Amino acid sequence: MSDIETLEQELTAKIAGAETEAALEDVRVAALGKKGVVSEQMKTLGKMSPEKRKEMGPALNGLKTRIAEAIEAKKTKLEDAALDARLATEKVDITLPVAPDVKGKIHPVSQATEEIIAIFSAMGFDVVEGPDIEDDFHNFTALNFPEDHPAREMHDTFFFEPKEDGSRMLLRTHTSPVQIRTMMNEKPPIRIVIPGRTFRCDSDQTHTPMFHQVEGLVIDHETHMGHLKGTLEAFAKAFFEVDTVKTRFRPHFFPFTEPSAEMDIGYERVGNEIRIGQGDKWMEILGCGMVHPNVLKNCGLDPDEYQGFAFGLGIDRVAMLKYGIPDLRDFFAADARWLEHYGFDALDQPSLWAGLSR
């Protein structure tokens, strides 16, 4: 037994003296490897008498366990020390001036979002945000989605694993849940826009699993389709920076609005360029409608007293349209060359008086 104690003291000293992970690995191999000193001792158990084996077996196994634990503890200590040293050498002094040849760019999605916010803020809308992870009530039920609606299926929506009660959280499929939360917590009049990320199971040249959306909501005693149409036409002219814009509203269906419509804008194509506000072609850019009475009831509002309108558009898509970006997937490719080409000056903040995109 004294030999085991001596061996343990020797190995413990070597472990303590290892100053690098490589040196520690050499100690481990020398002790616990196939031909390591502890492994060689374990091989002798088969040649011992039963009485001797009964004594030495637990002793050698205990030694093996203690040495393995000591090595693991030392490894953790060395890894922490290496990380601390690396962090100390990689500190960035953010007070240093930017190098003259380095210039960041604002992503087109961020630019378009700020432009949209600037437009609606000038109209008196407040900006409201909400969580990316939602429950079924706020994302579907309160918005008048029937139980068998396709959006509630896995092929269209990203669901989390079920909870113990069977309910499932999900990645919101639109920013509409923020409308519900606002109507449930604030008393009308309400006038808000809601920018944010949304998630759906879709991916191609014009769709991505994560995309950006902005929705608007107005709730008051007297609100009608004329107010909705005027608001959206004013937005389209301001966003695309044109003096006139042709629009048409086609009947559509959304569970949360009634009547519902899709808004088209007139355009023409000249070569590879799309010109908004002229031409005889039509392009759909957003969905809208009057808030469904059931939605108002679900939020505790009396539809006989209040009415309102809502609209929603994809920020990525209108950014593509305005700035001539051909593929939506490039928005998420993290290509510095692409951003250098399509990005915007960080110091140019969008405003109606100075110009949105300058």
CATH topology of the largest domain: BirA Bifunctional Protein, domain 2
General form: elongated
Nearest-integer average pLDDT = 87
Secondary structure tally, helices: 11
- What low-confidence regions span 5 or more consecutive residues with pLDDT below 50? none
The major sheet is characterized as: 8 strands, mixed
Give the full name of the CATH homologous superfamily of the largest domain.
Bira Bifunctional Protein, Domain 2
Rg over alpha carbons: 32 Å
Number of strands: 12
CATH architecture annotation of the largest domain: 2-Layer Sandwich
- Note the beta-strand portion: 15-25%
End-to-end span in angstroms? 84 Å
Order of helices and strands: HHHHEHEEHEHEEHEEEEHEHHE
Helical content class:
25-40%
Supply the CATH class of the largest domain. Answer: Alpha Beta
Structural class: alpha+beta
Outline of the structure:
The chain has about 350 residues and is an alpha+beta fold. Helices cover about 40% and strands about 20% of the residues. Strand 8 and strand 9 form a beta hairpin.
Can you tell me about this structure?
- This protein has 358 residues and is an alpha+beta fold.
- It has 2 domains: 2-89; 108-344, BirA Bifunctional Protein, domain 2.
- Helices cover 40% and strands 21% of the residues.
- The longest helix has 40 residues, at 50-89.
- α3 runs antiparallel to α4 (50-89).
- It contains 11 helices and 12 strands.
- It has helices at residues 2-17, 21-32, 37-43, 50-89, 108-122, 136-139, 176-185, 225-240, 293-298, 315-323, 336-342, and strands at residues 105-106, 126-127, 133-134, 170-171, 190-199, 210-220, 247-254, 257-270, 273-276, 281-291, 307-314, 344-345.
- The mean pLDDT is 87.
- Strands 2, 5, 6, 7, 8, 9, 10 and 11 form an 8-stranded mixed β-sheet that branches. Strands 1-12 form a two-stranded antiparallel ribbon. Strands 3-4 form a two-stranded antiparallel ribbon.
- The protein is elongated, with a radius of gyration of 32 Å.
